[in-house]
Specification:
The protein is α+β, with helices and mostly antiparallel strands. The chain folds into 2 domains: about 180 residues, no CATH class; about 90 residues, Herpes Virus-1 (2-Layer Sandwich), CATH 3.30.40. About 40% of the residues lie in helices and about 20% in strands. It is built from 9 helices and 11 strands. It has a 5-stranded mixed beta sheet with strand order 2-1-3-4-5. A two-stranded antiparallel ribbon has the order 6-7. Helix 1 packs antiparallel against helix 6. The longest helix has about 35 residues. It is found in: Nucleus. Its EC number is 3.1.-.-. Keywords: DNA damage, DNA recombination, DNA repair, Endonuclease, Hydrolase, Metal-binding, Nuclease, Nucleus, Zinc, Zinc-finger.
Amino acid sequence: MGDDIGTAGVPAFYCCYLLRSIPKRLSYYIGSTPNPVRRLRQHNGLLTKGGAYRTKRQGTRPWELAASVSGFPSKIAALQFEHAWQHPYQTRFIKSEDRIVKKKGGGRSIHQRLAVLKLLLHHPFFKVMSLVVHLFSEDIQRVWFLDKYKLEAPFIHVEVDEDALSEPTGEDEESVIEHAKKNLRLVELFYGRSLKEDSECLEEYRRRLQNGAMRCAICEKIVDYVKDSDSFSSEKELVAFCYNSVCDYFSCLSCLYNVFASDEELRTGEIPLIPTSGQCPNCNIELSWARIVRYSMFLSA
């Protein structure tokens, strides 16, 4: 899986990100990309093709990628999140009474930028996407968990990089460049892991589907992707797998939706239009509905 949009219209990877200038620590930039490694290199002038004009400001290069939000089901969803993060004073995804940034030009501190990120993750439109926040810097992690505006919620999935960087060892050019190289390496490892995890899951699912007829664990309907592939007029049934590597659960996607929706109704008293998560009927681990749907779309393409 590369960084292109799949035939089902689902990106293999897409994230929004927060950059911070290494020499000017109070300068930030918010953007989005299907390939954070390539984009970070563009921002730092290592790649001339691809723009990144706004990060060419005098004295701000090189930049480090401080935080990312990934798991978007489409490029459009990522661009909506990016725009809302950039314009917190007017976005419809934050209620007027909840706004931390109330006017254009405000919200420049790291506390405010991360607080806006949390507010966006609270909105139902983004909440059902089960987005993942990844933090690459020790001081960014401290700000996140300090939670100055008291906006933390247990449903926000946060990944803390084990090798997160501390502050640059000095202000000289050599120290700044070394810090930038280490940050780029962290982003490379993160991006590679993300693609590999999805690729390995999809490879295993395709292998199982190539065996032919499979029975839904819920309605017992027979699904045969091999047979459907031979028929130009037949649309493939959307299917669901458990992504626990030791679980062999398989069902129609619609059947699992009914299970997740019913379980969420029991927990909350409300029938969800889109469930956020649910337990695998076979192994009982918590599964992200958005992730299951994303895999299902790739498999049916």
